[in-house]
Amino acid sequence: MKKLWLLLVMALLAVMLIACGESEEGNTDGSTENEAEASETENESSASEEESNKAIDELSISFVPSREPDEITTATEPLKELLKEEMANLGYDIGNVEISVGTSYEAVGEALSAGTTDIGFIPGGTYVLYDDGAEVLLTSTRAGLTNDSDNAKDWNDNKPTEASDEQVTYYRALMIAGPSEKGQELAEKVNSGEELTFEDIDSASWAVMSTSSPAGYIYPALWLKDNFDKTITDLSNKVKVDSYGSAFARLAQKDIDVMVTYADARRDNADTWQSDFNREGTIWDETNVIGVTSGIYNDTISVSKNSEIMDEDLKTAIQQAFLNIAETEEGKEVISIYNHEGYQKASDADYDKEREAQEMVQSLN
Length: 365
What we know:
Largest sheet: 7 strands, mixed
Order of helices and strands: HEHHEHEHEHEEEHHEHEHEHHEEEHHEH
Keywords: Signal
Organism: Gracilibacillus caseinilyticus
Low-confidence stretches: 1-6, 23-32, 45-50
CATH architecture of the largest domain: 3-Layer(aba) Sandwich
Protein name: Phosphate/phosphite/phosphonate ABC transporter substrate-binding protein
Number of helices: 15
Pfam families: Phosphonate-bd
């Protein structure tokens, strides 16, 4: 009997061990199967995320030559990676960001119209001339200045011009007289409180920018119209320059007496005035404002209507990308080349006043 009971106990234990083993094997197989399913789901999710980003081989950006082209190219180099990163977060994988500086303001406008560049950093004046092929997305904001009077003497009494904490959406153009004998003569008359005559203005040699430049042509032309019922085309001695840097160089060398530029471009050229242009005095001592225009709406970031890759979704992504970039320290450094400090969303109607200015200039020409 003892042997019989022992055999029964051993048989029962064997059955229990087999059952436990099968249970553990079943749990192991189930766990492995669950892990495989989870891994497969994760891979599918990752693949789905990659597929959700639209691939674009190249996105091209053109800048107007408001400063020396090499200076703009160097300063904007970091923009390539910044834009790639932001666009990736917004659903676009950009293969290459191509940056170029146009030979003129018109060249960038024409490139936007033709669709040979996708994005253009252009002033309002250029935008309204080429709005048949360009669409504005953003307007720049920048720090205001400690000088904002429409009276030229006020600018000379409060030199040097400094930045203020206020963000503004407009700027003014200045007529700046240099260290030449005629330039100093005009400045002395303004600073003594006398009004300039057109004969005074016409006796000087002038440097102007291309006809689509707001600060370099359009608004100075309106200033001449408002004050003397004349325009730039009526000036006897004028020369067209390709950049404000070139104009300052001519002013320093006394090749010209007066230049037109944005307020206050002297801040950007204070160092080169003495280092590169070999002037003994400072730019603030040797130059004076003889005329101030009304406010000019700030520069735009515009896109081409005729670009092969441009659609509404891409426009929205580009708009948001630059808004985001302008919020970063590295981004602020890049856009400072144009004295931009931020951006706000823009509409075509924002530039209606600019159209009025352009129409007047065109009629005068």
